[in-house]
Amino acid sequence: MTLQQARWAAQRVLFYAYMFFSLFTVIGGWITAPLMSYLFLGDWRFWRHLRLGFRLWLHMFGFLGRLIRWENHGFMFSLPIAAQPFSAPNRSIVQLSSNWESGSSCGGCSRCCDKIACPILDQERKLCTGYNSFFWRYFNCGRFPSVEREIDYYGCPKWVMRPSRLGSRVAVHPEPAADPGYEGLSID
User: 151 lies in which domain range?
Assistant: First the structure.
């Protein structure tokens, strides 16, 4: 493991510990509202997002329930702890569907967010209010999709897996040499 991978792993472990603290102390996320707001929305100004706080807290319990029931067969939780953060899917394993007409944008599609009832999706504009935040980049949103099961589970019309040279689909979470959209993020 490289020093950079150790840093990514440490940031994820700290995030998990913080989420556990916030969920089970009930007031933990409210006392540390600026940090919670920054991690999920990329904005330290928590007062701008107070209405999302309670919905996000409830959503985290639903997320925990999906983990316990192993809904979606675990692909959502299969991210290696030391994996590089991403702001976009790995184009060496996915490509735009030939039927997709909105270019690189998701257009008005929000199937993946709707399927899990994501509380930080702006329902009016169909845009993620947490786009490119810590959570987005360090977990599955920023790298969606990374396996065919994700595309199938969410019914995503935008992406298809690239065929591999061997004729089968590409495996789980291969990392490219570098993510050009990644400029680093530190929560310190």
Answer: 3-161
